[in-house]
Write a structure and sequence with these properties.
This protein is mostly helical. It contains 18 helices and two strands.
Length: 420
């Protein structure tokens, strides 16, 4: 993303990321932190926005993007150091980096604090579906994982799915509760706060009442998720004809690499399973349940922007890696992981470094200068302005839900000039 646009660090601040900073400029910490947006509580990005609000208006994108880089480095480091307790370094690195090398990942995922819950949710499914969190972690790892679970559950309704996976693991082995009770308590607390915010919100996303249509949408997005991992045509969207084949067979037939990969997974690789296959099946089963719940909840709530596909795709990659890691033959295991990496790299290279979903948003420098010029005129000092964020947001569209004070893009000229 940064290589694709030279001035990205200085000029781009994502919609909600900037919206929350504006809120802190004109209202109190409590009001901006707990004001429900779109019917759910985005707690983590609000904390980041609070930090950004201490800096001058013109430097908001730079501070916001630097903080994002710091956060994803720490998050990746935590997940990688937990995974290598059980998995190879290669597999651990691949799953840790997968959200950032998927071709479907775009400007709605990369560099966006408000979408980090998608990556965090995928990571938590990965960690909790295994026994990694029950091992003898270092205190810093344990505390960091506990904080991540809480921040995720209080930032997105998907925290309920993480709690479900956590409780299923504990139900299978109740002796683990003493070593993991802080995870359960913080997850429950975060979910309670989140759902209190949902039920007390002035406006929430409309829901889809037709069960059959929910199932059809869920299956549709699952297929798109799987396909996008292995084949994501350059300069095309998932709504293009290539992703609207009447039958999946016709699509597979036209993509030999994908068909070859599936053939290996189904008919050749199972021959190399070790005796630990039962553990792998349990991990895959829990991860699959998580995927199913994410698809159903998202489809039912009508909240299916394409960035959600990246979340499902990361978990699907995790399932594939677990199959590969179960092979008894080291050579076959390494070959399989290498093949997966090459497939991801080839898929990504056709879109690097700007996804077809990339929008041409306003340059922050020009946006700030425009409003300063307006506000410095004496007759406009008591007026208010509406700030536009990347990618030209907010707009009059069905995705801009719940914009009510203090969480709006409107700010007085006096506050604009005070924030310089």
């Amino acid at each position: 993303m940064f290589l694709g646009e030279r001035n990205y660090l200085l000029n781009n601040i994502w919609a909600e990321d900037g919206l929350f900073v504006v809120c802190f400029e004109k209202s109190s910490f409590y009001s901006c932190t707990f004001d429900s947006y779109s019917g759910y509580l985005l707690f983590y990005p609000r904390l980041i926005a609070y930090i950004v609000s201490f800096f001058p208006l013109g430097s908001w994108p730079l501070v916001n993007n630097i903080l994002y880089l710091v956060v994803i480095f720490l998050l990746n480091y935590l997940i990688f150091t937990l995974l290598i307790l059980k998995y190879s370094k290669y597999a651990s690195a691949l799953i840790s980096l997968s959200p950032f090398i998927l071709a479907i990942s775009s400007d709605q995922i990369l560099g966006v604090h408000s979408s980090l819950y998608l990556i965090a949710s995928a990571y938590l499914v990965v960690i909790i579906s295994t026994d990694l969190w029950t091992l003898n972690m270092r205190p810093i790892q344990k505390y960091s994982l506990a904080v991540l679970i809480f921040l995720n559950s209080v930032s997105t309704p998907f925290g309920l799915i993480i709690l479900f996976v956590l409780l299923v693991k504990l139900a299978k082995n109740t002796n683990l509760f003493q070593r993991s009770k802080q995870f359960v308590i913080l997850s429950i607390l975060g979910c309670l706060i989140q759902f209190y915010s949902i039920f007390s919100a002035n406006e929430t996303r409309s829901s889809l009442q037709d069960p059959i249509l929910v199932l059809k949408n869920s299956f549709n997005f699952f297929i798109k998720s799987v396909i996008s991992i292995f084949y994501y045509p350059a300069e095309s969207r998932l709504d293009d004809p290539v992703f609207l084949q009447k039958t999946l067979v016709s699509f597979l037939y036209s993509n030999p690499l994908l068909l070859f990969t599936i053939g290996i997974i189904l008919f050749i690789l199972p021959l190399f399973f070790k005796s630990t296959v039962l553990v792998t099946v349990q991990i895959i089963s829990l991860s699959s349940w998580a995927v199913l719940l994410i698809l159903l909840i998202s489809s039912y709530s009508f909240g299916w922007p394409y960035r959600f596909i990246a979340l499902v795709s990361v978990i699907n990659i995790w399932i594939i890696i677990n199959i590969f890691e179960s092979f008894q033959n080291n050579l076959i295991r390494i070959f399989s992981l290498t093949l997966l990496t090459i497939t991801l790299a080839l898929n990504l290279s056709s879109n690097f470094s700007i996804s077809s979903y990339r929008s041409a948003g306003p340059e922050w420098r020009s946006e700030v200068e425009k409003h300063i010029e307006f506000c410095t005129k004496e007759e406009n000092f008591v007026q208010s302005v509406s700030i536009t964020f990347y990618p030209n947001w907010p707009t009059i569209n069905p995705h801009a839900h719940g914009l009510s004070e203090p969480t709006t893009n409107k700010i007085s000229c006096q506050q604009i000039l005070n924030s310089l």
